Amino acid sequence: MKITKTSCDLSSCLLCKNSVAGWLPLIDANRQMLSFKKKEVIFSEGSLVAGVYFVYKGTVKIHKAWSPQKELILSFARKGDMIGYRALGNDQILPITATALDDVTLCFVALPFFELSLQSSHPLTYALMRFYANALQEAEKRMRNLALMDVKGRVAETLLMLHHKFGADEMGQIAMNLTRQVMAAYAGTTYETFFRMLNELKAEGLIQQTDESLILLDAEKLATLTHTDP
Amino acid sequence: MKITKTSCDLSSCLLCKNSVAGWLPLIDANRQMLSFKKKEVIFSEGSLVAGVYFVYKGTVKIHKAWSPQKELILSFARKGDMIGYRALGNDQILPITATALDDVTLCFVALPFFELSLQSSHPLTYALMRFYANALQEAEKRMRNLALMDVKGRVAETLLMLHHKFGADEMGQIAMNLTRQVMAAYAGTTYETFFRMLNELKAEGLIQQTDESLILLDAEKLATLTHTDP
DNA sequence: AATTAACTATGATATAAATCATATTATTCG
DNA sequence: CGAATAATATGATTTATATCATAGTTAATT
Lengths: 230, 230
What we know:
Oligomer: homodimer
Structural class of chain A: alpha+beta
Strand content of chain A: 15-25%
Shape of chain A: elongated
Distance between the termini of chain A: 51 Å
CATH architecture of the largest domain in chain A: Sandwich
CATH superfamily of the largest domain in chain A: Jelly Rolls
Number of strands of chain A: 11
Number of domains of chain A: 2
Helix content of chain A: 40-55%
Order of helices and strands of chain A: EHHEEEEEEEEHHHHHEEH
Largest interface: A-B, 45 and 45 residues
Radius of gyration of chain A: 19 Å
CATH class of the largest domain in chain A: Mainly Beta
């Protein structure tokens, strides 16, 4: 990790978007741009909360370890996304780890200033509340999927999420370069199984593999796999 | 469901606790006490959000269906707990179902008034934000458990949660009367497997079954099952 | 450029947990 | 109160998915 002089335009993060213009200079004075190299841990489960971060460049995985060899990826964060916010609960101990998946630049805002911002801006607090409400809905949907949906459905769900989150280029390739292992850790399965499921989906003509990425040929049908059919 | 004249003391729910005294009469004017019989559905997945509810009496399960025969219980709500709050995200469609597990009395607050309360009270918005933050942490922990922990660990986790949520009487019996099927649906397994796991835990002397409930004989050791041990 | 380390690819095997089957016992309710 | 419905209890069987094993490829790092 190192401090960098890159700086954002104070306009794209949740904090800036929900602060009045007069507050921006204060934000500017209280933020710190940090950069992390690929694979570097940004913060880790069990450590104390320092503040919140906004992703400026790169991709971050938010994950929870189980055994040293196993983890579940909870989400991916990209430009504009906030991370570290899970720390605003009662517990001052971080429940998750954040790791850079490529070279990442972040804007860090220490907790005291963030709390001050919350106290001084009702719209910000309200926006954060809504943000959490959405995150909770999403988390609970995934809870059900992990408990009751089969792996193939979760793989389909993962691909659809990636397509939605990262977008696709002109050829339809999902604009990400995540490894299969990483995708598997999001889907909540092993990479061997993930790989087999990709093969099945390929055989069924729902996806296509390219050198660099994946193309969803039939998002409709993929979505079907993520629904119950009794 | 029917409207009832029972009324609470306007002091125990998140809304009342975070409103100034002057607001309480307004709450009083805008709430409605409702009662539901055992097994009655309070609101269901896919329907439109009407407002939030505070449990006054009884136990409610918050669940998400998969196939008609399968569901995951996300949480149990008891006196003082708020339900329906998952609806405050961007989506106006409820993502979950709430069902009465016994006879339940609720205090209902319609969405417009609840939103008005949020707008007029920063502390309330802040409290709700923190509430969500905690719920999210909890949900994500369970996500990992469902994905990576074995069933026995999840059963142990379920028992510890029940003990914590419902408390225990002088004999150590957990003060709830949930069926095994319900507990299994919370643990994310079938009731047959849940039953087998209870047998194992009994054989290991960690729990004891009574006619009416369960006693945790060794909470320490149960907790061990919920941690990684490589 | 060479060496290590990480990721992909597949088949074979093992196993945890779901499903199926069938009694038995409670509980609800007309 | 007695019929019907739901919950418990257990064994047998199946199946989805993880684990193990082994190679081949690509990507990092010195």
